[in-house]
Amino acid sequence: MTVLPVATLRLVAGVMLLAWALHGHAGTACAANAAGAGTISQGLALAQKVVALLDGTGARVALVARVGQDLSRYKLRYSHFAFAVRDHAGGQWSVVHSLNHCGTAKAGLYVQGMGNFFADDVFAYEAAILLLPSELQAPLEKVLASPVQLRRFHEERYSAVAYPFNTVYQNSNQWCLETLAGAMAPEGDVVTRAEAQGWLQQEGYQPTLLQLTPMTRLGGRMFKAHIAFDDHPGEYRWSDRIYVVSVESVFEFLRRRYPNDSQRRIVALDDR
């Protein structure tokens, strides 16, 4: 039997923890994660509850988030969010989001039914919904119906821990946030990723801070194609401060911007 050095064991453990935690942070299109019949049934039941809630609001576009993994270590609940669009060409209440291709550093845009969105092997059958003001729904509906506009803020180079204010990489939640920025800013002011990030900084968006040790960062970069840290400023990276776009940070930004017009709803499968 081969005995690994203690340092190597710590490195492997750090990699496993990072990969496990950040898999849910980003959203992944992976056939290897195919869910069983029971999981699919529960996912569809949750999707039905989400659709019923959305139908009762009169919304055209909303944000919907899922609990893909247990991120409580980072004081986070939801791992991944998407746009939910009523009467999309892909079907009523379609979900539009960015996913990386099964453990790779390449991402694509996907349109799925609500049932598919919750059919993955999630950590908890719970959804967070953020209802948006009509002034934001209208421009978003146009963007989400246009393949060209959808890709405007999308970057194929993927990292689960992409720095929010650098255009080298992008994580799934970051694409949604930058698309939101394009819809919120005055028309014509934000048409590139760099402009979206600059506008978000100017408007006070605050990303989520993850405390990741050097050993964990090294292991993640060495063994996982979809984790990179070289886009983060050195003063943050070398002081164990890794900033990312999380569901909570985006929802909080929108609630601050629209205090009277954004409503957060929680839907859980065990609700009575």
From TrEMBL:
It holds the Pfam family DUF2145. Keywords: Signal. It comes from the Bacteria. InterPro entries: UCP028477. Residues 1-26 form the signal peptide. This is DUF2145 domain-containing protein. It comes from Candidatus Accumulibacter vicinus. The lineage of its organism: Bacteria, Pseudomonadati, Pseudomonadota, Betaproteobacteria, Candidatus Accumulibacter.
